[in-house]
């Protein structure tokens, strides 16, 4: 692992999940879907020069690999220092099929 990657991984202070619901567009109707909100608390100083957004979108994509197609994940990145919301990703449908 590169020093930059290790610094970013070390910058993860906490990760918490909780149930969530969201309206997701579907064919032919928009549906209310149950999913999981994942709150990632980070130390922003660990991401200087490399970008929180790029890291968050990689984590968001990774999480979507492990949720079923009829559910979703939503990643929320917050500051470990003051609890301020830094980034709220859109709900992402799962990639796994139930069958």
Task: Describe the model.
It is a single chain. With 99 residues, the protein is of the alpha+beta class. It has two helices and five strands, in the order H-E-E-H-E-E-E. The chain has one domain: Alpha-Beta Plaits. Strands 1, 2, 3, 4 and 5 form a five-stranded mixed beta sheet that branches. The N and C termini lie far apart (36 Å). The model has no long low-confidence stretch (mean pLDDT 89).
Detail the poorly predicted runs.
Answer: none
**How many domain units?**
1
In CATH, the architecture is 2-Layer Sandwich
Ends: how far apart? 36 Å
Strand content: 35-45%
CATH fold-level name:
Alpha-Beta Plaits
Structural class: alpha+beta
Secondary structure layout:
Layout: H1 3-10, E1 12-24, E2 31-42, H2 52-64, E3 72-79, E4 85-88, E5 92-93
Parallel strand pairs: 2-3
Antiparallel strand pairs: 1-2, 3-4, 3-5
What is the gist of this entry?
This protein has 99 residues and is α+β, with helices and mostly antiparallel strands.
Supply the key terms:
99 residues, alpha+beta, Alpha-Beta Plaits, five-stranded mixed beta sheet, 2 helices, 5 strands
